[in-house]
Amino acid sequence: MARGSEFITLEDGVLRQVVGPNSRHLARMESAYDVDLDAPGGGIRINGSPRDRADARRMIESLSAKVEQGVEITDDLVIAILRQDRRGAAATGGVLAFGRKGAITPTGLAQSRYVDMMTHCPLSFGVGPAGTGKTFLAAAYGASLLRAKSVSRLVVTRPAVDAGEKLGFLPGDLNEKVDPYLAPIWEALNEVLGPEQVQAHRDRREIETAPIAFMRGRTLKNAFVIVDEAQNTSRMQMKMVLTRLGENSRMVVTGDPTQIDLLNPRDSGLSHALRILKGVEGVGVVEFAAEDVIRHPLVERIVRAYDADGARGGT
User: Fold this and answer.
1) What are phi and psi of 185, to 5 degrees?
2) pTM assigned to the model
3) Rounded to an integer, what distance in angstroms lies between the CA atom of residue 24 and that of residue 28?
4) Structural contact between residues 82 and 62, judged by C-beta atoms closer than 8 angstroms
5) CA 240, CA 213: separation in Å to the nearest integer?
6) Is 232 in contact with 262 (CB distance < 8 Å)?
7) pLDDT (tens digit per residue) in 73-121
8) Neighbours of 199 (CB within 10 A)
9) Are 118 and 247 in contact, with CB atoms under 8 Å apart?
10) Edge-first strand listing for the sheet containing 283-287
11) H or E element: which one contains 182?
12) What is the DSSP string of 26-58?
């Protein structure tokens, strides 16, 4: 295939990070995409076949976007994005955040679509069985926005209903009541920010956790909001929390419509919202399936067995 050339213009600060120390990042991209790259000033020139140039351009644009979001472009980050890209996921969704143990990357097409949706949609829904990474990825994305100062607050809320228990019967203050239900949230936040920074953000009320009822009357500006276990919200609660969105805020709603603990499952605010908001501009939905479960392989088989039983009527 005939080789050609194109030039991507980048600001000097962005260019330095994309190129990397001693042009290390460019060298990795050259090897991965069979292109020749050089940075004569003002940007990067790509030489190669049209297909290889397109792959390299996508990678460069992904890295430059991350720089503009305040993300540091490290060797590990570039390697992780290249690895994910070779598995078939777009480089723009290759790395969600860079945590203490390395890059946090989506696994599989559904998770990649989920990350891309959170990036582009003010309101996102991630629905499907447990073990698909819905909550963890939402929290990691929110933590990355907080660390980059793209938002000033991370707000996590959930209904005070879980397997027939009510939070009012649990000992302790509000945080002590809610925290045990938010283990995936804290795992992701600690991975991205570290426990000390998480606690510092909580002390400054830059990370908040509260039951849905405590959201009434608030307007959440410059915030990233996670509504977890949303299948257990009522229709009125869901409408109330969705309308809390303020200026420069985003919201991610997660839940499993097959795991409703309400006395009247037909009152689930998640199922209702998914139905009436379908096709509304600015709203994105990713539906995870059993094959997207990333826990023990047996979990996927368990999910499939319960789905099959439900389809038969559960007799």
Assistant:
1) -65, -50
2) 0.65
3) 6
4) no
5) 9
6) yes
7) 888 778 767 765 654 444 444 567 666 666 676 766 788 889 889 988 9
8) 13
9) no
10) 207-211, 153-158, 223-227, 250-255, 123-127, 283-287
11) none
12) HHHHHHHHT-EEE--SSEEEEEE-HHHHHHHHH
- Strands 123-127 and 283-287 come out as parallel
H helices of 149-249, in order, are 174-178, 183-193, 195-203, 235-242
pLDDT tens-digit profile of 157-210? 988 755 344 545 445 555 666 666 777 788 888 888 889 999 999 999 999 988
Exposed / middle / buried, residue 263 (Cβ in 10 Å: 0-12, 13-18, 19+): exposed
Residue indicated by tokens 């302790």: 172
Half-sphere exposure at residue 267, Cβ-oriented, CA atoms within 13 angstroms: 9
Reduced to 3 states (helix: H, G, I; strand: E, B; else coil), residue 164 is coil
Q: Over the range 2-23, which residues count as b (16 or more CB within 10 Å of their CB) and which as e? A: eeeeeebebeeebbebbbbeee
Please name which of 303, 241, 309 lies closest in space to residue 272, comparing C-alpha atoms. 241
Helix H, strand E, coil C: the string for 293-304 is: CCCCHHHHHHHH
Cβ atoms of 160 and 213 closer than 8 Å: yes
